[in-house]
Specification:
This is Efflux transporter outer membrane subunit. Helices cover about 55% and strands about 15% of the residues. The chain is of the alpha+beta class.
């Protein structure tokens, strides 16, 4: 009868805990509203989107450039780049935190067992049994020994009455998703940097090839000028000008070689290798491939950007912190129970007469803490507003990045035709002026000017072609990994 009276209030408390659970704090259903356009200013055409999301598979975007060396380097970033490895470890840590928070929803069970034997030294012995059941062996000289065994199994559980624990789990899960997005962002950034450095290296190869040809041409011009000078046709100043031009070209060649070495070292670090053990073969006639950018690029592609996804998940995590802070205004309930026994022998340890059980429930409520709880709630709300502001700024910056790169891709593609035309014309002028100089019709200063103009035109064309590839890589990064994996339909 007594046990029944004790169990009734405990069962009632458990039922109330299970049925009265209520989540305290604001709900989070959709990301904060950001005033965004339906299309990019620099884009063309009308479109409708399919269903983009940051978890959508983007595919190996670097294959758009049709370069097997670049594809190999980008794939090595996945497993060897240390920044990516650090982001992967942070994601694993976030996953473990989710499991840790989820464990708080379940009871904690503990087991404690002990065995002790004590005694004093003496002469002869007699064996007696005390009223507590312990066996005592007493010696004639006053010595005795005592044996005791005990075990206790207990459990405690805090019901999630106000949703504090479930919000902690939800916040940890949002943090895990944000860490996953950070991992994707780190991977995309490293792969984009590899591509940009690789294209810069190939540009250096092309520039070095052009400068080598220029140096060879200037050496021939110097020989011609020396011959004319020795024949008394040209002045000494012509020889000095030719020597100056040749020395400058050789210095420019060394500068390009230094730049190529630095780019090669940077690529080595990005793929997780020491620069001393990494090298890329020079390819002066490297074919330049620039992927075609779709005429209509939906602005909803930005939903695939990992930095936007991470910022949005941080907002959700900050929202859960508000509910966690507000739950401190309400009492917490804890249920506990235990079963144990103690005896002088192992055989008697599990007998019904030695078992002792206990059930309990406790409620705790803070009465006064000088406004600390309210301050925590205010801090959580301020943290939420900060996360919202960062999310909106991330979205706006993403639109700016895409607009910049779309404008760059469009303008650079138009400049290529003009640079090619300028380079062809400069080459013809250079040859004609050199022929007229050999015929004694013009001074050497005109030759120098024509050759400098032709060289600058050729190098500007190579630089522009590399810039087009760099702009394509930057656009792919701005769109969260390219435009593949989406089906866009032109609007009518």
């Amino acid at each position: 009868m007594t046990r029944s009276l004790l169990l009734k209030p405990l069962c009632l408390a458990i039922c109330l805990a299970l049925t009265a659970c209520a989540s305290i704090g604001p709900r989070y259903d959709t990301p904060p509203v950001v005033d965004t356009p339906v299309a990019f200013k620099q884009g063309q055409g009308e479109w409708v989107r399919a269903a983009p999301a940051d978890t959508l598979e983007r595919g190996p975007w670097w294959q758009l450039f049709n370069d097997p060396v670049l594809s190999d380097l980008a794939a090595r970033v996945e497993v060897s780049n240390q920044n990516v490895a650090a982001a992967a470890a942070a994601y694993a840590q976030a996953r473990a935190l989710v499991a840790q928070q989820r464990a708080t929803l379940f009871p904690v069970v503990g087991l404690d067992a002990s065995a002790n034997r004590s005694g004093t030294r003496g002469g002869g012995t007699t064996t007696t049994t005390t009223s507590t059941g312990a066996t005592v062996v007493t010696g004639s000289g006053g010595g005795s020994t005592r044996s005791s065994y005990q075990f206790d199994i207990g459990a405690s559980w805090e019901p999630d009455v106000w949703g504090r624990l479930s919000r902690s789990v939800a916040g940890a899960r949002a943090g895990e998703q944000a860490s996953l997005a950070d991992l994707a962002a780190a991977r995309l950034a490293a792969q984009g940097e590899v591509a940009a450095n690789y294209f810069g290296l190939r540009e250096a190869d092309a520039q070095r090839h052009l400068l080598s040809q220029t140096v060879a041409g200037y050496e021939r011009v110097l020989q011609i000028t020396n011959n004319r000078y020795n024949a008394g046709i040209a002045a000494r100043t012509d020889v000095l000008q030719a020597q100056t031009q040749l020395a400058n070209a050789r210095a420019d060649l060394l500068t390009v070689e230094r730049q190529r070495a630095q780019l090669e070292h940077a690529i080595a670090v990005l793929v997780g290798q020491a620069p001393a053990s990494f090298s890329l073969k020079a390819e002066p006639n490297w074919p330049i491939t620039v992927p075609d950018v779709p005429l209509s690029v939906p602005s909803t592609l930005l939903q695939r950007r990992p930095d936007i996804a991470s910022a949005e998940r941080r907002v959700a995590q900050a929202n859960e912190e508000i509910g966690i802070a507000q739950s401190a205004w309400f009492p917490s309930l804890r249920l506990s129970g235990s079963l144990g026994a103690g005896a002088a022998s192992i055989g008697d340890l599990f007998s019904a007469s030695s078992l002792v059980w206990a059930l309990g429930a406790s409620v705790a409520q803070t009465i006064f803490n000088a406004g600390a709880t309210g301050a925590q709630v205010d801090a959580a709300r301020a943290g939420f507003e900060e996360a919202v502001a960062r999310y909106r700024q991330t979205v706006l910056t993403a639109f700016q990045n895409v607009e910049d790169q779309l404008a760059g891709v469009r303008v650079l593609s138009q400049q290529v035709t003009l640079r090619e035309e300028a380079s062809r014309a400069a080459d013809l002028v250079e040859q004609q002026v050199l022929n007229r100089y050999q015929a004694g019709q013009v001074g050497f200063t005109e030759v120098v000017n024509a050759q400098a103009t032709a060289q600058n035109a050729r190098r500007a064309l190579v630089q522009l072609q590399s810039d087009r590839q760099a702009a394509a890589v930057a656009l792919i990064q701005s769109l969260g990994g390219g435009w593949t994996g989406l089906e866009t339909t032109a609007g009518r």
